[in-house]
Write a structure and sequence with these properties.
The protein has six helices and eight strands, in the order αβαβββαβαβαββα. The protein is of the alpha/beta class and about 180 residues long. Strands 1-8-7-4-5-6 form a six-stranded mixed sheet. A hairpin with a 5-residue loop joins strand 2 and strand 3. Helix 3 packs parallel to helix 6. The longest helix is centred in the N-terminal third of the chain and has 26 residues.
Length: about 180
């Protein structure tokens, strides 16, 4: 019996190690999205949780931080309060966060009642998923964040949780340009 328990414990540890390595690898996936994909992002119109159409180009001229997320995604939920704090901190400087959820309207509405954010949450569908891949997220993993400058040019994309201090540093560098 102890031998079986030891094997089981080793298997669980190995699985945790592999999963941790996979997650760590996802967190380090950064790049600069293609300009054509960034233009396609700004050309999108997506519904908000009430079903009202919102045009992404309404925020053109601002530094746009677009976060692809889902209510069921734990790292997505973890980073959103930090995004809300950064939205408050940098709004006067022309920074705008937008969340694009891969969820249904009801799930996003219920989520935003439990964890309110101060930036728009939109509902993404198949087109948004395809665009996310074109923006550099070939794994289609979540969360995925894209930053566009005031001219709509891509600055950075990141697959995985974006820590608040790291994003704050990135935004401050963009604001100083």
């Amino acid at each position: 019996m102890p031998r079986l328990l030891t094997k089981l414990l080793l298997a669980v540890c190995a699985l945790a190690f592999v999963a941790g390595g996979f997650w760590f690898g996802l967190k380090l996936r950064e790049g600069t999205p293609d300009e054509q994909a960034a233009r396609a992002l700004l050309a999108m119109t997506l519904p908000d949780p009430r079903g009202d159409a919102q045009r992404m180009d309404a925020w053109q001229g601002k530094i746009l931080v677009v976060n692809f997320w889902a209510t069921w995604c734990a790292p997505c939920r973890e980073e959103m309060p930090g995004f809300a704090r950064l939205q408050s901190k940098h709004a006067a400087n022309g920074v705008q966060f937008v969340g694009i959820a891969f969820d249904n309207h009801q799930a996003v509405t219920e989520f935003s009642q439990k964890i309110p954010v101060n930036y728009p949450l939109l509902i993404g569908g198949g087109d948004a998923r395809d665009l996310m891949k074109a923006l550099g997220n070939n794994a289609a993993g979540l969360p995925f964040t894209v930053i566009l400058d005031r001219d709509g040019k891509p600055v950075q994309s990141r697959l995985g949780r974006y820590d608040e201090p790291d994003l704050d540093t990135k935004l401050q560098a963009i604001l100083q340009r």
